[in-house]
Amino acid sequence: MRALITGGAGFIGSHTADALLAAGYEVRLLDSLEPPVHPERKAPEYLDPRCELIVGDVRDENALLRALQGCDVVYHLAAFQDYLPLFSRYFDVNVTSTALLYELIVRESLPVQKVIVASSQATLGEGLYVDAEGRAVLPDIRPDEQLARGIWDVQAPEGSTGPLRWQPTDETHQNPQNQYGVSKIAEETVALSIGRRYEIPTVAMRYSIVQGPRQSFYNAYSGACRVFCLAMHQKQRPPIYEDGQQIRDFVNIHDVVDANLLVLRDERADYEMFHVGGDRTLTVSEFASVVAEVFRIADYEPEACGRYRFGDTRHICSDVSKLKALGWSPQRTVHDSVDAYRGWIEDAAPPAELLTNATAKMEELGVVRRVKS
Asked: In whole angstroms, what is the distance from residue 285 CA to residue 158 CA?
């Protein structure tokens, strides 16, 4: 059996490749080695040499067809994820490539037995809330005018009674609030709809905030683990946006890989979408304290930096009951993720200016903004 992983040189892709090799699969990778994930545009050293690597773009018909030839299963993990206002690129990379993947399978009568597509918790936006009357609410993005005044909690919309209370959100809900989340909704729809129509077993995986080694240092907007670990490795205070009380749902990379292999083997997953999360929540400040503990920084107290990222959700937690019903459950803790990432940093020795440059870039783009005094 041969598996193709698009985006296979990246974070989730390379770990999934390792697990497939251990399970006896032949593994082929298709990756364009794009910055900022691969700043030197060369294959990373962590790739297992048993993997066949094709350097190419998932939007390139010739490259994708070459990669698909002889493959039994496909993990379509390649994606454009950033905070840049390159709206068309999100849909070009994330949606057009998915449509092309199925087009080639159907047109060329390729014997692909299953396709597993990477989606995202970003499809949920703020997720599910209930108001004071117990009615379900899917809030819109918090307005910049509110955030600039330091009012962080989601406000009750017209017709609802506050205060609102966040809820774990299951797969029946979607409410994307940024271009990445909207593109992932479109990708899910393409994959599941065409897969079902042409009887190509397909699974969509909505990953929460995935953490662990091999996560790029160079993406300016790649999550709390990267930012906090880099800061504490360099003896800096990490920037805590808003008031630090935002709820987040973190999941370890190896738990994600376990889920990826489970849905490959289990026919009950066919034509379904699953949330893949950590099944517990932490505030951003609590997460910062975990990082400080792992890096052995004594007497650390989280402190808000007086800024916020426009477009961030206030609270989000994925309900993973559906995936747990197949026999999966997260086995690793946030401490495990941070400890592994610490080892990754110490081995890689990333440049000291990374955090400063990333923050400056996001402020220049208007992603990071200051609270008005």
From this structure: 31
